[in-house]
Design brief:
CATH superfamily of one domain: P-loop containing nucleotide triphosphate hydrolases
CATH topology of one domain: Rossmann fold
Strand order of the largest sheet: 6-7-8-3-9-10
Mean pLDDT: 93
Number of helices: 10
Strand content: 25-35%
Length: 235
């Protein structure tokens, strides 16, 4: 479904990605792990069209999308809930969700709005509230819900647990699993490696712009380097 082939990405003369290759197949949750500065967010921005690779390709259903602007990648079936939520602070919850369906002209928008409200009942309760007044957890729900409104086949999530209380994190990841079970493939960037690997089917570990490890989530959970660097355990 989603294929990334040998991405080379630079910020000026500084190389951020040094030949990244990964895949997300239909029905999968794939975790992308790594320390700050490893290249996780850069990878997602390049896939979604916010950054241009110097070389390499991004393919969705075997069609190249790495030269497309972001709105066209959304139209092709790829949605991105960015780090830091980035909700429209002055719009209501409902207006934010409607913005997620901005490119759509099909009759299923209302149905998907009700789907988001079913996934996140808190958003239904607060649909006329200004988004900037929501709690951090509610804004994260809104960011994910807005991306779901695009009806993506691949959903990219960047740090959905950042700054949230453990109970809220648990709720968010239960919903991520439900979204996946309803048919959406997910590429998940997450600092909380334990939660990410407990949720994902497979994973990749980035280190200074390169893939350091990859494999089934259970295999990565047991890998000594992952346990030491990301799970806080001894080798």
């Amino acid at each position: 479904m989603l294929e990334v082939e040998n991405l080379q990405v630079y910020y000026g003369e500084i190389q951020a990605l040094k030949g990244i290759s990964l895949q997300v197949q239909a029905g999968e949750i794939v975790a992308l792990l790594g320390n700050n500065g490893a290249g996780k967010t850069t990878t997602l921005k390049t896939i979604s069209g916010l950054l241009r690779p110097r070389s390499g390709r991004v393919l969705l259903d075997r069609e190249p999308i790495h030269q497309l602007p972001p709105h066209e990648t959304v139209a092709r079936g790829l949605a991105h809930a960015p780090e830091g939520r980035r909700v429209f602070n002055r719009l209501t919850v409902r207006e934010n969700l409607e913005m997620g369906a901005y490119l759509r002209r099909d009759p299923g928008v209302r149905e998907d709005l009700e789907r988001v409200f079913a996934l996140f009942p808190r958003l239904k309760e607060r649909q006329v509230q200004i988004a900037g007044t929501l709690s951090g957890g509610e804004q994260q729900m809104l960011a994910i819900g807005r991306a779901v409104m695009a009806r993506p086949r691949v959903l990219m999530l960047d740090e959905p647990s950042m700054g949230l209380a453990p109970l809220v994190v648990e709720q968010i990841f239960e919903t991520i699993t439900r979204i996946n079970q309803e048919g959406t493939a997910i590429l998940l960037v997450e600092q909380n490696a334990a939660v990410a690997l407990a949720t994902a089917h497979r994973g990749y570990v980035l280190e200074t712009g390169r893939i350091f490890l990859s494999g089934a989530a259970a295999e990565l959970q047991g890998h000594p380097e992952v346990r030491r660097a990301y799970l806080g355990e001894g080798a």
